[in-house]
């Protein structure tokens, strides 16, 4: 199971977490979508296309500014939730066709077996009880429903990047690939698990992933080398497609 670190519920009650994420989303996701987030969204859309249905009931957990909800709405009815109540109030005005529900996901009742798909991007590492979080995700899915999850890849972030310590109100517990698989196994059948977005700020991987040094390779092979590094486990993000167990 994941090892706790840089983490204390007592140091970050829900109100403090909400204040942090309201500020963070207002400064970031309301203005631009990062390369990492865009790649996560690309994978999720690919999975949804594979399902091939356009009338899904979808729950977006930890939707931030709500930036991904409009794209998800092409596949059905979308409910999106986040701690960032101030940001979600603005999102509701931008995208009135999406149902935005601000609040602590662990405390909000979305009903049993309500959704066909749950999408959650980079939320797992910011919740206090990860196993309880996974169980609650499962409870809201219909039998055979899909969980499409992205979370930070602890191996790459710790070994090849220098990340500032958590800010006040920011919980942090990254997981390794095998830890994510262990967290999901009791509730879900793992259909796919791989990494995306090879990024590095230090060590040999900084050179391996250098855009300047890799420009000639991309000119010849396109994204094929990047995709190979993703499948080898060198991506910033862990991407999991899983199906709720019967």
Q: Could you please describe the fold and organization of this structure?
A:
- This protein has 10 helices and 7 strands.
- With 246 residues, the chain is of the alpha/beta class.
- Mean pLDDT is 91; it is low at 1-9.
- Helix 3 (69-72) links the parallel strand 1 (56-61) and strand 2.
- The longest helix has 17 residues, at 35-51.
- Strands 3-2-1-4-5-7-6 form a 7-stranded mixed β-sheet, sandwiched between helices.
The helix count comes to: 10
Q: How would you spell out the order of helices and strands?
A: HHEHEHEEHEHHEHHHE
Main β-sheet, in a few words?
Answer: 7 strands, mixed
Low-confidence segments, given as residue ranges, are 1-9
Beta strands, count? 7
Short structural description:
The chain is built from ten helices and seven strands. It is an alpha/beta fold and 246 residues long.
Can you tag this structure with a few keywords?
246 residues; seven-stranded mixed β-sheet; globular; disordered N terminus; 7 strands
Write the layout of secondary structure elements.
Elements: H1 14-27, H2 35-51, E1 56-61, H3 69-72, E2 76-82, H4 85-94, E3 99-102, E4 115-121, H5 130-139, E5 141-152, H6 154-160, H7 177-184, E6 188-196, H8 204-208, H9 211-221, H10 224-231, E7 237-244
């Amino acid at each position: 199971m994941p090892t706790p670190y840089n983490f204390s519920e007592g140091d970050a009650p829900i109100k403090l977490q909400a204040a942090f994420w309201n500020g963070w989303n207002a400064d970031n996701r309301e203005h631009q979508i990062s390369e990492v987030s865009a790649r996560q969204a690309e994978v999720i859309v690919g999975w949804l296309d594979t399902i091939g249905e356009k009338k899904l009931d979808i729950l977006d957990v930890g939707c931030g500014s709500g930036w991904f909800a409009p794209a998800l709405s092409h596949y059905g009815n979308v409910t999106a939730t986040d701690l960032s109540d101030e940001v979600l109030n603005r999102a509701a005005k931008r995208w009135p066709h999406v149902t935005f529900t601000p609040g602590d996901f662990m405390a909000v009742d979305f009903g049993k077996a309500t959704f066909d798909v749950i999408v959650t991007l980079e939320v797992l590492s910011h919740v206090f009880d990860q196993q309880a979080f996974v169980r609650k995700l499962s409870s809201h899915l219909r039998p055979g429903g899909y969980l499409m999850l992205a979370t930070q890849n602890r191996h790459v972030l710790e070994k090849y990047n220098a990340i500032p310590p958590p800010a006040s109100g920011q919980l942090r517990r990254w997981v390794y690939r095998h830890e994510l698989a262990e967290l999901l196994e009791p509730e879900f059948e793992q259909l796919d698990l791989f990494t995306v977005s090879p990024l590095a700020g230090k060590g040999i991987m900084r050179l391996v992933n250098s855009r300047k040094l890799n420009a000639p390779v991309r000119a010849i092979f396109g994204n094929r080398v990047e995709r190979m590094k993703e499948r080898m486990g060198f991506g910033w993000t862990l991407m999991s497609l899983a199906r709720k167990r019967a």
